[in-house]
Amino acid sequence: MTLPVRRNRPSTTSDRPIGWTSPNPLAEFDDLLNQMSGLLESTVGTVAPAVAWTPLADVMEEDDAYRIEIEIPGAKSSDINVETDGQEVVVSGEIKEKERKGILRRGSRRTGAFEYRVRLPEKVDADNVTADMEDGVLTITVPKAEVARHRRIEVTHRTDTGRSAGG
Questions:
Q1: What is the pLDDT of residues 126-156, one digit of tens each?
Q2: For residue 93, what are the contacts with CB-CB under 8 A and spacing of at least 6?
Q3: Where are the beta strands (DSSP E) in 41-136?
Q4: Given CA atoms 19, 107, 138, 115 in this order, what sign does their dihedral have?
Q5: How far apart are the C-alpha atoms of 11 and 40, rounded to whole Å?
Q6: Rounded Cα distance, 84 and 72, in Å
Q7: Which residues of the chain form beta strands (DSSP E)?
Q8: Per residue in 72-111, pLDDT tens?
Q9: Contact indicator for 60, 67 with CB cutoff of 8 Å
Q10: What are the domain boundaries of the chain?
Q11: 50: pLDDT confidence band, cut at 50, 70 and 90?
Q12: What whole-number distance in Å separates Cα of residue 162 and Cα of residue 156?
């Protein structure tokens, strides 16, 4: 009986450097994205800048309204736009980079343009939407549109003479 022979293949892991080659492990992805953006711009012309990020949000339904809470720490109320278009709510804006003295050694706060979109399942009263900012959380209240109220309709019974019975 013969046994299979295991052959050593050249290992690609030994060719890789140990550890990260740059201080920021995502720098290579950023560089690749910039190159792709440059290539796209050179072939089709100027491209509108993409939205950098989408903030975290909760959407809650109440009896008479929807409440949307969006985390936007560091944003100023004057830099936030809230718009409605039918059943869609669009929140966009920008968190501006602060001017700092010295060298930034570590930065993990989100800055730049942001956008959050949500389509609500029912018709809304766009004229009465409110937005309040407190402690870095934007709360948007979107009232539901008035719908026909539920009512019970009594059914009457007609007799052969054309008159209704009971009334």
A1: 999 999 999 999 999 999 988 644 567 788 8
A2: 72, 75, 79, 80, 81, 113, 114
A3: 57-61, 65-71, 80-85, 88-95, 112-119, 130-134
A4: negative
A5: 36
A6: 19
A7: 57-61, 65-71, 80-85, 88-95, 112-119, 130-134, 137-143, 157-158, 164-165
A8: 999 999 999 999 998 999 999 999 888 888 888 888 888 8
A9: yes
A10: 50-97+110-147
A11: low
A12: 12
* Structure tokens that stand for 135 in this block: 């402690």
**Are 50 and 34 within 8 A, CB to CB?**
no
In the chain, the amino acid numbered 118 is: V
The two tokens of residue 115 are 């956008």
Residue 87 token pair: 């059943």
- For 50-97+110-147, CATH gives 2.60.40.790
